[in-house]
Amino acid sequence: MTDLAELLASVRTHYVDMFEAALAELREKGHTLIIEPPVVDEAGELVREGEMNFGARYDLAMVEGEGATPSMFSPSRMLNFQPEAFHGAGLDIMVAPFQWDNVRIAIEGEPRAIAAALAEWFDGALAAPDDVREDEIQRAAHFLSDPVVEGLTSLVQADLGTVDVHIVMALFDVLRLAGASRVELGLPDS
Predict the structure, then answer these.
(1) What does the pLDDT look like over 30-50, one tens digit per residue?
(2) Cα separations (Å) of 12 from 67, 76, 168?
(3) Alpha-carbon gap, residue 169 to 142, rounded angstroms
(4) 32 and which of 63, 76, 120, 145 could share a cystine (Cβ 3.0–4.6 Å)?
(5) In the chain, where does DSSP find H-type helix?
């Protein structure tokens, strides 16, 4: 595969297809679901945690009486492909096999600028687009860890949820504008 957006779309589609099949199976069994609800407190406010004050989303919640129980979805398999390297506008991007809901992102650049860029991007990626109905996938990211800095490399773990590919492509632009020189996507270290 030679196109970055096409490669990311293949990884996203692989994950989203399995997620939607799992949702359909749960609905067929009679479960009422809330798709990708944000993590909120008792007052309904978004819970923010960590140094970066990031919010998060669950994969789904199963409605039970007056409440709902959050639940996680884990894909049964990962899309395999050969690692690919991309270069453009001063940014090198390396993509190794990864799961859309569990990716390690390594970013080379000045750590404070990278952290600010990640925070700006994730707040937008966490929000569902306005045209999304509540009973559909929300096309939103679910989780981003605080960066762990090793020299000039910032490492984060992300659950990209069902966010659209163009939002991930926008992350590369935001990081490039923040001075990043290299971004790597891959599986988290075990």
Answers:
(1) 999 999 999 999 999 999 999
(2) 30, 14, 10
(3) 17
(4) 63
(5) 4-28, 111-126, 165-177
Looking at residue 137, what DSSP letter applies? -
Q: CA angle at residue 53 from 37 to 116, to 5 degrees? A: 115
Sketch the domain layout of the chain as residue ranges: 1-190
Taking CA atoms, 170 is separated from 55, 124, 136, in Å, by: 19, 10, 23
CB of 158 closer than 8 Å to CB of 105 = yes
Structure tokens at 67: 């409440």
For residue 138, give both structure tokens: 């929300």
Looking up tokens 């293949």 gives: 10
Report the DSSP beta bridge partners of residue 63. Answer: 68
What is the token pair recorded at 168? 């991930």
The answer to whether 153 touches 107, Cβ cutoff 8 Å, is: yes
pTM: 0.94
